[in-house]
Specification:
Layout (H helix, E strand, L loop, with lengths): L2 H11 L6 H6 L2 H21 L8 H20 L8 H24 L5
Length: 113
């Protein structure tokens, strides 16, 4: 692990990597609710789909974060139609990565390296 990875990990552990735009508009409870809804929906969607291609962790994770963004979108545009979508998306990936990974591995039975 290099220094930047160590700093990033410590920031995540200490909850320093805050996205202030998001935090000013969406409460922790609202964000947690949106994430749980997205996780459940993506799980059902991927389990039901007859897919020729295998389900990958990257596709599943991206779907969960995109669905979470869809859920909180109205809060993000309340006072401005323009918002830092990419920054918030990356923040949510960092915030929920471990939980999505554990869920994916337990539901789909595939260990991700």
């Amino acid at each position: 692990m290099n220094l930047s990875e160590d700093i990033s990990r410590i920031k995540t552990l200490m909850n320093i990597n805050e996205n202030m735009f998001l935090r000013r508009r969406v409460t922790n409870d609202e964000l947690e609710h949106a994430f749980q809804e997205a996780l459940e929906y993506a799980t059902v969607m991927y389990k039901r789909k007859n897919r020729k291609a295998p389900i990958t962790f990257d596709n599943f994770g991206e779907s969960v974060i995109s669905l979470t963004m869809d859920e909180i979108h109205p809060k993000l545009i309340e006072d401005s139609e323009v918002f830092p979508y990419r920054d918030i998306f990356i923040f949510l990936v960092d915030l929920f990565y471990d939980r999505i990974l554990r869920h994916y591995e337990s539901v789909f039975g595939e260990v991700v390296d």
